[in-house]
Amino acid sequence: MTPTMVEHGGLDIMCLNKYCHSTSSSSSSSEQRDKKVFTKIKLSLSSEYPRKNAEILSGQYGTNLLLIGAALMLAIAHHDPAVREEHLLSFASCLMLLQLLWMMWYILVRERQDNTRTERDVHATTCWIRGGLTLLALLSLIMDAFRIGYYVGYRSCVSAVLGVFPVIHATHTIAQVQFLWFHIKDVIKCYETFERFGVIHAVFTNLLLWCSGVMSEAEHFLNNHKRRLSALGYQNLTIEHSEPNCNCTTSTCSMFSSSLYYLYPFNIEYHIFVSALLFVMWKNIGRNLDLSSNRKRKVTKTQGLTLGPILGLLALASTIGILVVYITHVEKSLQMRQSAISMFYIYGIVMLVVMCCAGASGLVIYRVNHKPLDTSKNPSRQLDTELLFSSSIGSWFMSWCSVVAVLSTHSRPPYRWTNLIYSLLIVLEKYVQNLFIIESLYRQQENAERENQELPAAPEIFSVTSSLAPPYNGIINRAYETPERVCVAMETEQEESGQMYRCPRKPSEVPMGVGTKGEEAPNIKRQILKNIAVLLIMCNISLWILPAFGCRPQYDNGLEQETFGFSIWTTVLNFAIPLNLFYRMHSVASLFEVFRRV
């Protein structure tokens, strides 16, 4: 080290090269560190801003599409001659054609990128959900066939749009189901901005088709309700006739027309479920997956399922009987009408009490068995939770309106107080069921905990560092130890990929732990939770069937209509009943997921 003289302010200062160099290097390193921090902030802002910007822009685009369709539907509901059903169907057909073009573009781009592996979110959907959607899609295709047959019978006096729309809708349904089966789990990482607009277009196209189906079904039930009131002597009720002003050229027009309304519930549920799945795909665009939580779950065992399926099938059978009796009796004399409504409320009270007890039992089991919550990011699970709460609002609002009507009315029908109890139980049952489903979905699975633990001690049996092995000071035979390690590594790797592979093992010289068995003993708590899940699934299906196929005592009991008036109460029902139907079917899907997780 040679000293150097630095002249500063007339004084000579001795400085060693080593320390001068360290001072300059520290200042330069701090400058580089500041530059790195600034560059990192700049990159994060520049990468995050387009993503958030694309989310906002695409969300606004989809919302405005839905609002345009809603404006057309309101004009049609007002029966404005300037806006007809053909205009709405033409708009929906254009949206479906645009979605078909986007799906073709997406599939072609993916096929040209064979060399790159597309990430997939295993939690986005399951095979049974896609199978259920395929069944709903088949029923929607039958409805399209009926629409085409209806158009053929009246083609001389109706617009050609009524015949073109079901053809486009059928093509759209087939292509969309194919897309759901093979691409709904994709995590898009290229052309993100464009793909966001494509996915959100598909989401709101299905939402618009759902709204259109809900409007048609509500109009049908409202006309039926007006006919019943007219038969009872009510006046000043206008019944809208939607039949064309010409004769049908075939003998099946009336059959097609009446059958359509029995298929509407399936078509409605199909479109709302597809929009939910596509929304999860939209949320996954550009997402970095957590590989530790993005794993397939093991196949769920079904041993011990006895009481839940038996009670569920009993509930389903009684539901079908109640539906038949209600529909056949509600349009007859006043006494039979009141007995049918009273029968419905008594049945509903029994069903809701059973569901509340089952859900509360599941919550008690969860509280006793303390497990940590799974806080990993999961858009599908988060959407399930939000949809459960938001769709509960409709039936809660309808129930509280019924409570107000029962307490304020002066009439004394025989079903007055059963209506009150039924409405309060609806509120309580949804409280309990929502808590049970969310608690189950956010519970950390025991299988996941076991997978995160260290591997079993098999490779350590012949290891020198094992606490189970006796100390050995001689020569270690690596040729004897290595095959076991390779064997265990191969077995672990193939188990994760789903293959069955077992290495030849020597008889273990280490005694098994106390209480360890060759097969896992059946867990009583798991069996109870599985039976609860199956029972709630069947009960929710039963409570979906009744309003979906015409059993709606809220239209027929007269209490709410007396309190709120005809127009206000029908508006409430047109808002609340579709949300309640969606809640029941979405609860079925969520409870299937609960059954698989237990």
TrEMBL record:
Principal cellular location given in the protein's record: membrane
Transmembrane intervals: 61-77, 89-108, 128-152, 158-182, 194-215, 261-282, 303-328, 340-366, 387-408, 420-442, 528-546, 566-583
MF terms in GO: proton channel activity
GO cellular component: plasma membrane
Keywords attached to this entry: Cell membrane, Hydrogen ion transport, Ion channel, Ion transport, Membrane, Transmembrane, Transmembrane helix, Transport
Membrane disposition: Multi-pass membrane protein
Subcellular location: Cell membrane
GO terms for biological process, alphabetical: inner ear morphogenesis
Lineage: superkingdom: Eukaryota
Coiled-coil residue spans: none
Family: Belongs to the otopetrin family.
PANTHER family to which the protein is assigned, alphabetical: PROTON CHANNEL OTOP, PROTON CHANNEL OTOP1
Protein name, entry field: Otopetrin 1
